[in-house]
Structure formats: structure tokens, C-alpha cells
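== Fold encoding ==
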Amino acid sequence: LAPGLYENEKKLVIPFVLGATTMFLVGSAFAYYIVIPYGFAFLVNFGSTVVSVMPSIGKYVSFFTKLLFGFGIAFELPVFTFFFAVIGIVNDQHLKEFFKYAVVLIFVLSALLTPPDVLTQFLMSGPLILLYGLSILIAKAINPHKEDEEDESEIEVIPPHYYDEWDYAFDSYKPDWAAVYERLHTHTDASKIDRI
């Protein structure tokens, strides 16, 4: 990949790879030590008074792997935010405006990546919402939103410059015809006014 990257992009590769690997391991560890024990216990005890739970090793491995990879990928959110903020695609204002939609997407993603129970879904969606807040702080530090120097609503409208009162009298939106006649009478010979 190195020949196809600019020099500044090459400098981002190592931090991006290290950050992505670290966050994936953190997400997987969170799933292994917190989500899987509580989630599996919840699934086993749910309805245990009615039926006996007999999980197979294949389904347990599938459940285990799905949660590890799901949480590992989900915890990459701050890393991708950092990368997009560095190249100028997103800033903190964009993330703040998208927050209400992000919450809905997080719950949908949690429902897809976790087993069909409320506990594991909340164990994924809760940290993801916190990571989204962390992503806003990262974007604010890397690529903060810049206010416009002048707000269009506050721009003062300056009337056009007139060279003298004569031009103003004729070019204004509502000319004072009495004032115009008075200026004509003052600056022009009365015989010329009669001819006009």
C-alpha cells in the first residue's frame, strides 16, 4: 500500500493500525469478561423453571464468536472518527447533529450483532453511546467546527455611495420631488427650469 499513499497518509497508517487493533482487543475483552458471562447466564436462567437448557458446543462457540467479533468491531468507532476527522470529513458539529439518529442506529446494530435478549443488547448499546460521545470529543480536538466570520443575518447593508445630493435625489427609491424642484431652482437659472 505504501507506493499508493502520500507522505502525510503514510504517517497515519501506523497510528490507525495500532488504534484499531487496540480498540478491537478492548471490545473483545469487554465481551469476554462482562457481556458473555452475564449474557449467557441470563439466557440459561431465562425460562429454566419451564424447560431445561441443553446448549450444544457448536451453538455456544457460534454465540461466543459472534459476540467477540461484534464488540470488537463496534469499539472501532473512535478510531474511525479520528481518521475521518484528520482528513476533514467530519467535525464535532456533524456528530452532534447526527446524535439522535446515531442512537437509533446503535440499537439496531446491537440487535443484529447480539443474541435476541434485552440484556446483551443494552450491554452493547450502552458502551457504544459512550464511545459516540468520546468520538465527539475526538473530532472536537482534531477538527473542531469553525464558526463563520460573519453571520449573514448580521451583515450590515450599506447604502450605495452617491457623489452628491443631486444624484441621491433622483436615484433614491422614493425621491422627494419637492426637494428636487427646490435644488433645481437653487442651482439652475429660472428660465432653464421653465423650459424643462
Observations:
- The radius of gyration is 34 Å.
- DSSP finds nine helices and no strands in the chain.
- Confidence is low (pLDDT under 50) at residues 149-153.
